[in-house]
Amino acid sequence: MSERKCLGRRKIPMEKIENETTRLVTFSKRKSSLYKKASKLVEKYDDVDLGIISYSPNGKPYSFFHPTFGSVVGHFVSPDTQPSIDSGIVAANARIKVTERRGQLDNLDIIEKIISNQTPGANDMENLWEYIDNVNEQDVKRLEEWLDLVDPKLNHKLMMLENGAVSSTQAPPNNA
């Protein structure tokens, strides 16, 4: 049994989780938590280079790199070497894509808020229209697919509500 030392804390003995299902679930939760923390770090410090490689208990590799695998490994292998112009351009492009995706996620959050019947503020509506102005063909196709899935469900719900409303507004039977 190995021991792990946490800064400012007592040593905690680590034991192998014997149950395979429990071990896989624990790995998955820890990996997810670690990647969320890494994402928040990247969001807070846009110019950070970050890489995580982990292996599941079954030996399957998982990785998280920002902005690119090459830039992170390059800094690790040769920390004092400046990146080449090509890798610098690739890294800058990756950072731009992350920023764009973050903006798209923010806009989707606004749309979700509107769809979930929350009253958006004036600023949210302004952002929504800005998003709509900048929407591309792929986004429109995704939205159409989503609407195709949601439309029958909404129609069914509407019909159920109308039927419920109609039956509750009808006069009771004569023998009641």
List keywords for this structure.
two-stranded antiparallel sheet, 176 residues, SRF-like, 5 helices, mainly alpha, two-stranded antiparallel ribbon, flat
Structure description:
- This protein has 176 residues and is mainly alpha-helical.
- Among the domains are: 15-66, SRF-like, CATH 3.40.1810; 82-150, no CATH class.
- Helix 3 (85-115) crosses helix 4.
- The N and C termini lie far apart (76 Å).
- The strands form 2 sheets. The chain has a two-stranded antiparallel sheet. A two-stranded antiparallel ribbon has the order 3-4.
- It has helices at 20-44, 69-77, 85-115, 122-133, 137-169, and strands at residues 3-4, 12-13, 50-55, 61-66.
- Helix content is 62%, strand content 9%.
- The protein has 5 helices and 4 strands; from the N terminus they run ββαββαααα.
- Strand 3 (50-55) and strand 4 form a beta hairpin.
Helix content: 55-70%
Strand order of the largest sheet: 1-2
Radius of gyration: 26 Å
Proportion of residues in extended strands: 5-15%
Q: Total helix count? A: 5
| Overall pLDDT score | 75
- Can you count the beta strands? 4
So what's the overall shape?
A: flat
Q: Which residues form runs of ≥5 with pLDDT under 50?
A: 166-176
Which structural class do you get from the secondary structure elements? mainly alpha
Helix-strand topology string: EEHEEHHHH
For the terminal residues, how far apart are their CA atoms? 76 Å
Q: What does the main sheet amount to?
A: 2 strands, antiparallel
Keywords: DNA-binding, Nucleus, Transcription, Transcription regulation
Organism: Capsicum annuum
GO cellular component, one term: nucleus
Subcellular location: Nucleus
